[in-house]
Write a structure and sequence with these properties.
Distance between the termini: 194 Å
CATH topology of one domain: Tetrahydropterin Synthase, Chain A
Largest sheet: 4 strands, antiparallel
Number of helices: 9
Helix content: 40-55%
Strand content: 15-25%
CATH architecture of one domain: 2-Layer Sandwich
Radius of gyration: 55 Å
CATH class of one domain: Alpha Beta
Length: about 290
């Protein structure tokens, strides 16, 4: 009975040969899986041979590598934003100026291995921020404080050129720079605000005076128009009177007088009656 139980146990348990095959298959799977690496889109692979940076760079997609000996560091080469920390500077008059901004950049895909070897992946804190800090403290003191805001675009272009030249040695390409905020000392900002309020008040008074001048001009124009209207009416009436006076003849005057006569002849001194030529009044001829 014990021998039969032992044989049954041997039949149920795995044989050493089977275990060995499984171990080999597992090792081969690990070896096979470790022989390939997938580099995502917009990235490059920096290859390390036992920790040493190799010259070859892996592109996007499936790549072969030596298991265990080689390790791949994936580096993003797409355009990336980097916000600048607020930097204190001084204007030409030594007035305080604070600037913050944003830079869009990308890494040269053909030199990611050199960047990783010289700087590492924390290149933003190591090279970008110090370069921007130096630029601000070198360029801003050139401008008077009153010209910093009006010449903001000029400063931005100079920043792109300056930082581009500085970061090119690290294979970092500057795509664009934006100044998100430019602040001055509280005292200067209050003075600017007071000046703006005063200018606004002056402009308001100027608009009021202009409105009053327009109203005065309108009144003058109205009075002039009324005077011209009266003059035109008077001239018309004068012309009408003149025409009427020309149209009234002496005969018409006498005729109108006869129409109003009551039939009583006027008396003169001595009782004589004045002679009235009716023929002339009627416009007829004497017989």
């Amino acid at each position: 009975m014990p021998e039969r139980n032992l044989e049954a146990f041997d039949l149920r348990g795995p044989k050493p040969r089977t275990i060995g095959i499984l171990v080999i298959l597992f090792i081969l799977f690990i070896f096979f899986w470790g022989s390939f690496v997938i580099v995502p889109a917009g990235h490059r692979g920096v290859v390390l041979w036992w920790g040493s940076v190799e010259k070859r760079i892996m592109g996007e997609g499936l790549n072969f590598k030596v298991p265990v000996a080689e390790r791949v560091i994936k580096v993003d080469v797409r355009v990336q934003p980097h916000p600048f920390k607020e930097i204190d500077a001084a204007s030409k008059e030594y007035q305080m100026v604070k600037l913050t901004g944003m830079m869009n950049f990308h890494i040269d895909p053909s030199n990611v291995n050199d960047l990783y070897q010289k700087v590492g992946l924390d290149f933003a804190n190591k090279v970008i921020d110090p370069a921007f800090n130096d630029f601000v403290k070198e360029v801003v003191p050139i401008y008077p404080i009153t010209e910093i805001l009006p010449k903001r675009e000029e400063i931005r272009k100079r920043a792109m050129l300056k930082l581009g030249d500085n970061l090119a040695r690290y294979h970092i390409v500057v795509d664009d720079i934006y100044f998100s905020n430019i602040r001055f000392s509280p005292e200067y900002e209050k003075a600017v605000e007071a000046k703006q309020v005063a200018q606004q008040q002056v402009e308001t008074q100027r608009q009021v005076l202009a409105q009053r001048e327009i109203e005065a001009q309108q009144k003058v124009a109205t009075a002039k128009g009324e005077a011209e209207s009266i003059l035109v009416v008077a001239q018309g009436q004068a012309k009408a009177n003149e025409a009427l006076s020309r149209s009234i003849s002496p005969i018409l005057v006498e005729y109108k007088g006869i129409e109003k006569w009551n039939g009583i002849l006027p008396q003169v001194s001595g009782g004589a009656v004045p002679f009235i030529d009716l023929g002339k009044m009627g416009g007829g001829k004497k017989p």
